[in-house]
Amino acid sequence: MTGGAEKSGGAAGRDGIAHAKIGGAAEQDRGIPARRGENKNAARGGLSRVPAFVKAALLKLWFAGAVYFFIGLGVADRKLDQLDLTVAIGLIMGLATDLAVNRVLMAIDNKKKRMPKYLMFYRKKWYFLCLNLLYGLILSALTAYTYHFINAAVNGARGLPDGSTAFGAEPVLFGVFFLAYDLLLVGLRNGIARAARALKKERGRV
After folding, report:
1. What pLDDT is stored for residue 47 in this prediction?
2. CB neighbours of 50 closer than 8 A, spacing ≥ 6?
3. pLDDT digits (tens, 9 = 90+) for 130-164
4. Listed residue (61, 34, 39) closest to 139, CA to CA
5. d(Cα 32, Cα 194) in Å, to the nearest integer?
6. Are 98 and 132 spatial neighbours (Cβ–Cβ below 8 Å)?
7. In sequence order, which ranges of the chain are alpha helices (DSSP H)?
8. Rounded to an integer, what distance in angstroms lies between the CA atom of residue 192 and that of residue 199?
């Protein structure tokens, strides 16, 4: 009887070891895709941790600088006068904003609805394209007048003739001015919207 018990105990021990190996392999198999999933979530989380404002500002700045680089310093600068150049840059920026900038920013928003407050006209409607074209013209005109006023001030301070270009445009600073006016107008719109909501809420309490 003792021998039978030892045999039974040995068989039970071997079964326990086999089950432990199978269980360990199963846990290892489950762990590999889990770690891969965690890596993917971590990669997505890295981008999602960047504030929406930073994403919007960097992309808008890049596009404004790129458009001026290719248009303002490229073909148009040698064939168009200042007014035509301003109109050309404004229309191209409006088109780029509607078809590229807004769509990219809305795509990386991950349905959190944080991005619309940094975009002036972002809906996918045909008339929003017209609004973005007009908005691009406004931003381009404001940026051009900024350079005009800076040059007028510099010319007056240095005693240079009127119309001299002491402070020329270049892509990075053009993008900074363009972005600054965009953020100013978007912030003004957001402020008006908040004031309107607050007024409506106050009237609802009366």
Report:
1. 63
2. none
3. 999 999 999 999 999 999 999 888 888 877 777 77
4. 61
5. 49
6. yes
7. 2-48, 52-67, 76-79, 82-96, 102-107, 126-158, 171-205
8. 10
pTM as predicted: 0.73
Q: Tell me how far apart the alpha carbons of residues 133 and 95 are, in angstroms, rounded to a whole number.
A: 6
Tell me, what amino acid is at 9?
G
What type of residue sits at position 61? L
**Beta carbons of 193 and 95 less than 8 angstroms apart:** no
Backbone phi, psi, residue 134, to 5°: -65, -40
Q: How far is CA 104 from each of CA 98, 110, 154, 186, rounded to the nearest angstrom?
A: 10, 11, 39, 18
C-beta of residue 93 within 8 angstroms of C-beta of residue 178 = yes
Residue type, 76: A
Is the separation of the CB atoms in 133 and 95 below 8 Å? Answer: yes
Structure tokens that stand for 163 in this block: 């119309």
- Domain locations along the chain: 1-49, 51-205
What's the rounded Cα separation, in Å, for the pair 190 and 132? 17
Computed from CA positions of residues 99, 181, 141, 162, in that sequence, does the dihedral angle turn out positive or negative?
Answer: negative
